[in-house]
Amino acid sequence: MKKLWKYIVGFFTFVVGLLVLSGRKNKKVKKLNKDIKNVNKSIKQRKKDINVIDKKIKGKKENLKKIKSKKYVKKKKGKKETEEFLKNFANKK
Fold it and tell me: Which of 52, 77, 87, 93 could form a disulfide with 81, with the two C-beta atoms 3.0–4.6 Å apart?
C-alpha cells in the first residue's frame, strides 16, 4: 500500500508541477502577445501618419503645378496710382 501511495502522491506532484510551470509560461506568452499588439498599434499609427504626410505632399505638388502653369498678368496702373505710390514711398524714407 505504501508503494501505491507513493505513486499517487508522485503523480499529483507531477501534475501540479506541470500546471505551475504552464502558468508561468502563460504569463510570459501573454506578456509577449501584449508587446506584439502594442508594436502593431504603433506601426499602424505610423502608417497613418505617413499617409497623411503623403496626401499633404501630393496636394502641395498639385498646387505647385497649378501655380507654375498659370500666367500672371501685371495690372496696369494709372498715372495717379503711380504718383501716389511714389509719394508714399518717398515719405517712408
Answer: 77
DSSP string, 30-61: HHHHHHHHHHHHHHHHHHHHHHHHHHHHHHHH
What's this model's pTM, rounded to 2 decimal places? 0.45
Q: Which three cell numbers stand for residue 25?
A: 509560461
> Which grid coordinates belong to 15?
501534475
How big is the chain, counted in residues? 93
The CA distance from 9 to 1, in Å, is: 12
Distance CA 40, CA 46 (A): 10
pLDDT by residue, tens only, the chain of 93 residues:
777 888 888 888 888 887 777 777 777 888 889 999 999 999 999 999 999 999 999 988 888 888 888 776 666 777 888 888 888 878 765
